[in-house]
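FIELD: query
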Amino acid sequence: MTTLQIVSVLFAIAALFGLVSVRWLKLPITVGTMLLTVAASACLMAVGQASPQFHRWALNLALPIDFQGVILHGMLPLLLFSGAFLLDLEQLAREKLTISLLSVVGTVLSVFLVAGLMFLLTGFRIPWVQCLIFGALISPTDPIAVLEMLRRTGVPKAIQAQLAGESLFNDGIGAVLFLTLLDMAGGHKPTPLHIAGFLLLKAGGAAAAGMIAAWVASHLMRSVNAYQVDILFTIALALGGYALADGLRLSAPIEAVVAGIALRHFNRHQPAARIDHDSVKGFWEVIDEVQNSILFVLLGLEMMAVPVNLRALGAGFAAILAVNAVRLGAVAALLALVRLLRPGHRSSTFVLAWGGLRGGLSIALALSVPEALGRPWIVAATYLTVVFSILVQGGSMDRLLRRWNAKQAPAR
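FIELD: result
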């Protein structure tokens, strides 16, 4: 199939499954879209067993898609920028301690704890270095999945800021840890000091690049009163800043997040006549929703390209248990520390733990793992974890949050 044909099919599937999700299934669009795409992919695979020609057609739809490239160098810059640009800056500033602990300390703890549990649950059959690599790519919560969930649930604003801020910042931290572990597995043995310096350089350099680029874009936007130009500058910032950071080997995800937050900060004190906030904000909300729908269709179709066997299934179930157990323990411990430092701080261990979804970024990172470092089982385990995260955790958040809000009401 040609690129145009594949894109046309993806949009048609997203529109059709979105209609079914809203009208008949009464599910959030992205959850329903992924559920229907996974079910359709499973049916295509089953029919393909009896009809090789049909099976080849189904594979020709999924296999030509460079999932890793589409996510890391296509959708991720826009999705991260839009998520950061649409954040509530006041709430983000109030929750900076919680966000910092969850995104940095929580991510590092999760990498090693998930790796240790995977090593134990699989009976020590998987090499330790492969468990570490898996822990690094699965530990960051996915901002794409998390931010979509927050928009359709009644989470209090403080908890929204904690969950959204963590998911945006731990993205870059996890990616840098993942690349460092891959480098170590390839024969390099960096010292802890080298690793710390590497993280500081990647994250600090990316943050500085994002702030500088946002400052330049903000000043250029002030020179003209035309929302079309404002929108073009934000697109240029989202894509150009990410590409620049990637070319300089900095953490491009952190650059995109910082650029989105910094642009909102630089622009918020400007007169409305100088920068059309509503038009720009509306544009990025639409871009975010459309890309989310396409992303979840891609996640569902990726099922046809994932190698599944008994070993992979066992690793997948172990991963689901390990990831959620570690998430609960890490969130509980870090929130206890926050409450010790800031008495009276309000949050929810349950909401933060169950709302820490995994998504397309984890799969994209898993696809970059070399074959010799366990790529088949890592891809399969990652995919099963992501499917569970989005369909079970994301799909149940509405109902669970209603019950949680009902319990909280008498105490208010």
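FIELD: remark
The chain has 17 helices and no strands.
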